[in-house]
Automatic annotation (TrEMBL):
InterPro entries: Smr_dom, Smr_dom_sf
Domain Smr: 126-177
Protein name: DNA mismatch repair protein MutS
Domain of life: Bacteria
Organism: Maribacter flavus
Lineage: Bacteria, Pseudomonadati, Bacteroidota, Flavobacteriia, Flavobacteriales
Pfam families xrefs: Smr
Length: 180
């Protein structure tokens, strides 16, 4: 049990209250908050706060030395084979495919999106493009599952979620194995 003295800086254990001790009566401690409100606590509800932060000259010199060092740049290393590979993006959002999607039913929209995906995937295979990103959005996942079903029909492709930082959860990347 700590004995508090007038002028001590204290904080309440179970609350976000701090202040300076103004009065001590037995186990009751009165403190003045930063906002100027007097509050009373049991001495077991308070903890002494130290204002002393001591830093040696050596520690200051170490920090200065670190700050003066030039920051190392972290370059993303790209494999020579991947350096010149074009990455194809196909946005399957319905408003990117047709001017006015309102007269289309959900079934027609889905079929249009799947036909576009198949046509673009066949184009990429024909042009020997190794990576294609299909942007399908998150939604309820119907288009994504239908795309996966389409991709499973191809023997020379591998598909996985695209880069999360760039696309979030709404895109799938397809890698096409080229038979040279």
């Amino acid at each position: 049990m700590t004995q508090f003295e007038i002028g001590d800086r204290v904080e309440a254990i179970d609350d976000v209250i701090s202040g300076t001790v103004t009065q001590v009566s037995g186990h009751m401690v009165t403190l003045m908050t930063k906002d100027g409100f007097p509050m009373q606590f049991q001495d077991t509800e308070l903890v002494l706060v130290s204002n002393d932060i001591r830093v040696s000259n050596f520690e200051v010199a170490q920090v200065k030395k670190e700050k003066e060092l030039p920051k190392k740049r972290t370059n993303k290393t790209v494999k020579p084979k991947e350096r010149n590979l074009p990455k194809m993006e196909v946005d399957l959002h319905i408003n990117q495919l047709v001017k006015n999607p309102k007269p289309l039913s959900n079934f027609e929209m889905l079929n249009l999106q799947l036909d576009t995906a198949k046509r673009q995937l066949d184009f990429a295979i024909g042009k020997r493009i190794q990576k294609v990103v299909f942007i399908h959005g998150v939604g309820e996942g119907v288009l994504k599952e239908e795309l996966y079903s389409l991709f499973r029909k191809y023997e020379n492709v591998k598909y996985y979620d695209a880069d999360y930082q760039k696309y979030g959860l709404g895109a799938t990347e397809v890698y096409i194995f080229q038979n040279y």
